[in-house]
Amino acid sequence: MINEKFRAIVSGQAIHDNPPKWNARNLAQLYCFLAITFLLLIHTSNALWDPATRTFTITLGILGFWRYGWWMTHLGRSELYQNVRFPALREKADKLWTDGWRPRQVHFMMTTFRERRDTTELVVESICREVRKSGIPATLWLGSGDSYDENIIMNYLRQHAQDIPLELVIIRQNVSGKRMAIGLVLRAMSRRRIDLNDLIVFMDGDAVLAPGILRACCPLFGVDPELQAVTTDEEVLCFGPKWMQSWLTMRFAQRRIAMQSHAMSNKVLTLTGRMSVFRANHLNQYKFIRMLEADSLEHWLWGKFRFLSGDDKSTWYYMLTQDAKMLYVPDALVYTIEEVEGSGIERMTQNFRRWSGNMLRNGTRCLQLGPRKVGFFIWWCVLDQRIAMWTMLVSPILAVSVALLADIAYLTGYVIWIAMSRMFLCLFLFRYSKTVHIEWPFILFFNQLLNASVKVYCLARLSKQRWTNRGNQSAGGGDTWDARLRDMMAFWVTSVWVTGLVFSVWLCAGLVVI
After folding, report:
1. Do the beta carbons of residue 223 and residue 96 sit within 8 Å?
2. Hey, CA dihedral for 366, 372, 373, 378, is it positive or negative?
3. How many CB atoms lie within 10 A of CB 399?
């Protein structure tokens, strides 16, 4: 249930209610964390530098130096974008807006399916507030699968939107799935013959716009005629286990660093479906519409299959093929609402399966475009995602193997190393977060380990898809003999990959000798 505190936050009325990020409590917790880990490193028998095991520590150190070096590269680029490049762009955009420039019209393309009434009303309220404040004529194109959502939105607009230039157009989908809903809306826009320089806001039915988001995004398109799409910052409100709120807050801090780093190359790695803004000239193209409706991949094991979710990755891939300029807007914020019922771990794993599956399905064809088309840095970032899912598993495999085959005390040292190294990363993440969470080093490691494991699992099962929070959709299942044989083949391939990884780690570390 949406409470008044959250309503105040998203409406901009509670900006100063949170205590300072670095208050006495957080500083004391950080000091205790660092002191305890340092004392454990000094006074426990951890075997990190014992003559029999120091080679393994050096191996871990070399791997860590590479991964942390790449992470620090992202951090440096992020700081450059945040403090140098984007402020200059923002200054030009603000001047254009102040001088009176406005887009001819803004189109909100929103899909929803049996969302909670209070969530839907809060989303529509935020749209109305932005239209009223900006004065830009707007159309809300609703891709709907049920009269329940339509009635909520129509009733709200009748009561609260009579004084603003906002038109509601409802497109009831006749084929299930979010992708088909988007396709039907875009086809309706095409029939309306909207202006090619109009702006189209892609947003989900649970995405609440923060105050000033149109003012932040729209003039960027006026300043730069080559800009084709932008995506925005996100915050999350989680109705569920407290640790999930902490985990999601940490992920969005990581997202800010990555997005700003990628934007230095005039590209991003996803045009987030929660809220992104496009020029209309691309969205009227049949190729673009058809890709969103029926995007598919040809796989050596599963044949040709259609994508269930990941519409944001499809729009991103299309923009890559057009060599389109894309940016991240750090001062434009959208709030997302996560309602978790049942097991938090299960929901976390399901999210990883959806996110990782979308990344793997689209990463393959992005790499095939080549660095000339994509741009070397972004192309390498996609390749690094493939590499990182394996390298993340190397250190736990090596630590457990050394502990079992050489010295069990080595595992103690590894846990201390994880605590200290992940806290080092979190000190930078805290800069990109509004709050400080002392548990983040452990959540970060678990996040990395689970994410890598899920990616390895999904790599041979790209056709298997499930989306629990959009009508519990699923794809890629089946009980036929053909499906069972393919499942067995996927299991065998994954087993070979994991066995090969473990053996390679043992061989490189000298735990086995051929």
Report:
1. yes
2. positive
3. 20
Q: What is the pLDDT of residues 380-408, one digit of tens each?
A: 999 999 999 999 999 999 999 998 888 88
Domains in the chain with CATH codes = 74-354 (3.90.550.10)
Contact 162, 155 (CB under 8 A): no
Query: Quick one: tokens of 395?
Result: 């250190």
Residues 6+ apart with CB under 8 A from 88: none
- Who contacts 329 (Cβ-Cβ below 8 Å, separation ≥6)? 216, 217, 220, 230, 231, 232, 233
Could you tell me the pTM of the whole model?
0.91
Compute the distance between CA of residue 39 and CA of residue 46 in angstroms, rounded to an integer.
12
Q: What does the block give as tokens for 101?
A: 């420039």
**SS3 of 276-342:** EEEEHHHHCCHHHHHHHHHCEEEECCCEEEECCCCHHHHHHHHHHHCCCEEEEEEEEEEEEEEECCC
| Residue from 68, 125, 113, 188 nearest 428 by CA | 68
Give the pair of three-digit tokens for residue 356. Answer: 């990782």
Distance CA(177)–CA(184), nearest Å, equals 11
- Listed in order, strand segments (DSSP E) in 353-441 are none
SS (H, E, C) 476-503: CCCCCHHHHHHHHHHHHHHHHHHHHHHH
Indicate the pLDDT class of residue 262, thresholds 50, 70 and 90. Answer: very high
The amino acid at 56: F
